Amino acid sequence: MRIATAKESYLQDEALFDSRTQRVWAALLGLALIAYPFMANDYWLYLACLVAINVASATGLNILTGYTGLVSLGQAAFMGLGAYTVAVMEHHVGGFFLLNLLAAGVVAMAGGIVVGIPSLRVKGLYLAIVTIAASFLAHFLFVNSGFTGGTGGMTVPPAQVAGVALDTSFRIYWLIVPVTVLMVLGAANLFRTRIGRAFIAIRDRDISAEVLGIPLLRYKLLSFGLSSFYAGVAGGLWAYFFRVVTPESFPLIMSIFFLAAIIVGGMGTILGGILGAIFMTMVPEVLRILVGLLPVSGDTLQFVSPVRTIVFGLLIVGFLIFEPHGLAEVWRRIRRFFHLWPFRN
Amino acid sequence: MDWLFLFEVVLAGIGAGGLYALAGLAFVIIYKATQVVNLAIGEMLMLGAYAFFAFAAGMQWPIPVAIMAAIAVCAVLGGVVERLAIRPMLGESPISVFMVTVGLGSIMVGLVELIWSADQRRLPEFIPNEPIFLGEAFISPKIFYSFLVAVVLVAISLAVFRWWRGGVALRATASDQGAAYAMGINVPRVFSLAWIVAAALSAVAGIAVGAIGGVSSSMGIFGLSVLVVVIVGGLDSVLGALLAGLLIGVLEALAGAYLGGEFKLLITFLVLVAVLMVRPYGLFGTREIERL
Amino acid sequence: MATVDPVLRVDGLTLAFGGVKALNGVGFEVMPGSITTVIGPNGAGKTSLFNTISGFYRPVAGRVEFEGQDITRLPAPQRARLGLARSFQNIALFRGMSVLDNIKLGRHCQLKTNIFQSLFYLGAARREEMELRADIEARIIDFLEIDHIRHAPVASLSYGLQKRVEMARALAMQPRVLMLDEPVAGMNREETEDMARFILDVNAEWGVTVLMVEHDMGLVMDLSDHVVVLNFGQVIAQGKPQEVQSNPEVVRAYLGSGDVSELRERLRTGRARASGAAADNGLQPGASAGGGTPPLSEVA
């Protein structure tokens, strides 16, 4: 138990940051996020944007898989739906980029709800495989539908704000990071209310949830819809960031990446989604540096990709066997250590 | 309507279906014994193909020796994987174990890419070249002989499960390990045996698939069709794997011939969704009953 | 005295699994404000009855009426909304959540915030959550004496406490009828007494009608206003606890077929023969049992 954190009202008890130290840390984090772009170079800004996009998508997947217990291998496909929506809207409609992002979310959400329809009858792993099927269907659509540019894909013009084009990492940071922060806060709020609790109830014991009056299909569809909305917005941000969208941009392996991210980070916790996304995004970068440092002659770059694939698999297997509650649990243990210090237990 | 062409396509589909059935058999053995859904089945095939490639092309061993060696190596790997990655997950939720197999598949792909790069390779030719004819219909010899091997293996397995008392022991360990232990069944040994046999069978399938279409690090995509086959057939049914394998093989061949190559997987997945909507546990699968 | 309508009525309920009839023409009434208990030997169909009333099984014949409304075809989540709450034989708490969150879920179908309000939280959602929290703390947590474990993860609680949390969750539903499936199964003496007190308090102070399944005869006799006896899917007796207790049909159901007095005769002669043989070895004969049907409490 933490010292000096007795609550004096239910409001205090239920707050997101429920002690003064937590609020101070949160404020510091906010300041750090604001100061970061002014102190980082282009490469680190690029990484920050990529991490933020992944955090947004991972948080969405966490809502569906971590909190509601519906395993999905279709997150990348929903991101693709969002990215293509942005691309198509920029080409055919123009318009305000925030509206395009919203449309991206809505289109992906519609896709998510359709994929979720079997979820009442089809359970567990079978549903996961249906989501794989959905990924392939999406890929097929991206290649073969008339207005998505076929195998070559589409380019995306930069988002425009008051005549300023968001075409550098510095500028687009100010779009991506606040949107991500809002999405993460929204998810955290969700699980303080009845709908979030209902999701967890469905995960833990759906028969009991029914007895309590929770209509299963409606809430499962809500979870699918919300998580794919998140994926769609993340995909839209992705489109504005990379400015090119092709059918190969969102392969099945990317869905596996996000699933690995929430496993490594910790399923069913908001912090887990954040930590997992950061970790999984940074691992390839760290690897690239490491491989570059190795005393191996010749072009070591060709080894980066397979080594990354191996490490990726090792992370999934390793965390599942040794640390199934993920980095969030490790973080909790570290915090507990500091809270209790100098006591041990 | 070119009936001859249709017949040839169906034959080719049946031939491919035999390989699906064989890979499906490997999957079902693992599921029957350990209740694990092995998403890395495609990658296990890939390892078999590459092992054969290493022995036959790399080390220039005679073909029969290379085949035996590849099967043996894969069998050993199967046992090692079971011991290191699956055994510690005993008792965990099936979704976690499923994710472990996803991770394993990734490791296998990475290893293959590391050693051989991601390029596509051709396996040394060892299947007799003379075209086979059924009446006027042409059958590719590679497909024909692979089909024979696959069907023989599946038939042997069907017989084994029907008449060997170990077949019941296998199901016992899957459904209730504690009770199986109490009956004197050596549960860990059953687990290892299941993975070893399954790895050996998938090696055979992998060599065949590699002989037909070449090997590459993305061969594992074969596993997705196999997954559909076992789901449609029922995760724990050998007969189901056979029938569903043939069905999916024919459907894919028809789709590929009349609609185009990119439609093959699409049709397969549409069949999957259709079957699951009608029968959420597959055509022959056993329904899970929840006690209230 | 004016006739009062039953709050729950089951009529001619028949439930079949394939050829097996789990329930065969079951009918009884539950009066508002009463504590009604369903008893019967194992396999009699008690849990099937509960599951049918809850809405998980569809009967092949008969009706279930709740406050005069026919709910036989109504899906389970909607029955909850009408005020029918239930607990399970095996604890059905949500293991990934704390005690407080589990209890809050009980109120789920009466809360109103939608998804947009939830994501934003400040404003409507927060107000509703605070009201909910205050209400649960004041009326339920205090009442069931679980304030010391309100934030504990339910998986870490003892069996008795988990059952109490389950009741708390059911109470949060503000039910008209509370169905308890073996509320004291597996509890020791002290936990059973605590639970009995809570059941009585819920019935008296909250005015909740209680319908339970139980095996603990002491609890059944002490608490119930009305007892319904089930055997092989049929109601073989119902009435006040004392009436049911001395009903020979009921005793036979628990003991098996055959006249009880005949069984006692056999036991007595058997003992006499054994003691006769023992007397040859110098042992005392045991006391013989009295005649007539024994009360149920001795048998169960």
Could you walk me through the main structural features you see in this protein, from its secondary elements to its overall organization?
- The complex is a heterotrimer of chains A (345), B (292) and C (300).
- Chain A has 345 residues and is mainly α.
- Chain A contains 14 helices and four strands.
- Chain A has one domain (36-340): ABC transporter involved in vitamin B12 uptake, BtuC, CATH 1.10.3470.
- In chain A, helix 4 (75-92) runs antiparallel to helix 5, helix 11 packs across helix 12 and helix 11 crosses helix 13 (301-322).
- Chain B has a single domain, classed as Orthogonal Bundle (ABC transporter involved in vitamin B12 uptake, BtuC), CATH 1.10.3470.
- In chain B, a hairpin with a 2-residue loop joins strand 1 (132-134) and strand 2 (137-139).
- Chain C is an alpha/beta fold.
- Chain C contains twelve helices and ten strands.
- In chain C, the strands form two sheets. A six-stranded mixed β-sheet of chain C has the order 6-7-8-3-9-10, with helices on both faces.
- The radius of gyration of chain C is 23 Å and the shape is globular.
- Chain B binds chain C through residues 291-292, and chain C through 47, 51, 56, 88, 90.
Descriptive keywords:
heterotrimer, A: 345 residues, mainly alpha, ABC transporter involved in vitamin B12 uptake, BtuC, two-stranded antiparallel ribbon, two-stranded antiparallel sheet, globular, B: 292 residues, 2% strand
Q: Look at the helices and sheets of chain A and give the structural class.
A: mainly alpha
What's the CATH class of the largest domain in chain C, please? Alpha Beta
**Based on the structure given, which CATH architecture of chain A is correct?**
Orthogonal Bundle
Return the string of H and E elements of chain A: HHHHHHEEEHHHHEHHHH
Quaternary structure of the protein:
heterotrimer
Summarize the model shown.
The complex is a heterotrimer of chains A (345), B (292) and C (300). Chain A is an all-alpha fold.
